[in-house]
Structure prediction request, 141 residues.
Amino acid sequence: MFFYYQIFGTIVLLLLHLIWRFREFLPSSWKSELDHIVYMAAFLPVLFAFLLVGTVAMVLLSRREWFWVRNLKVALCAATILVTISLLLDLVFFPSAAVANGLRLIMLALWLLYFSVSKRAHHVFRTHDWDKFGSQITTDS
Prediction:
């Protein structure tokens, strides 16, 4: 559930940012049109990326099939790419936002790694034998 807390917590924070700083999304609040376009190009893909990951994660939670784990890994990979692009834009144009996007990027990369190598995810979603696997660990220890 920690994965879901992180993904949906990030979505909530991004939506709150959208609400609290709504004026930043209006072209009139920027000195130049380029700054506004870059800001939108840095923020909106990150929001889209997390919404995509959250949507696929919710389907995975309800279906619990390996097919959706693969889709989640693809969504995490796409989100990692989008957040990387956003981070690069932040480093050039909005350095104060780089730390937050850097942390988001690390989080996504770690979850992608987890779902790629985790034996637990494999047993829960692919072989559906976590109960037997989990009880062997408990019995053996």
In short: Residues 27 and 36 are 6 Å apart (CA to CA). The chain is about 85% helix and 0% strand. The chain has a mean pLDDT of 89. Residues 2-140 form one domain.
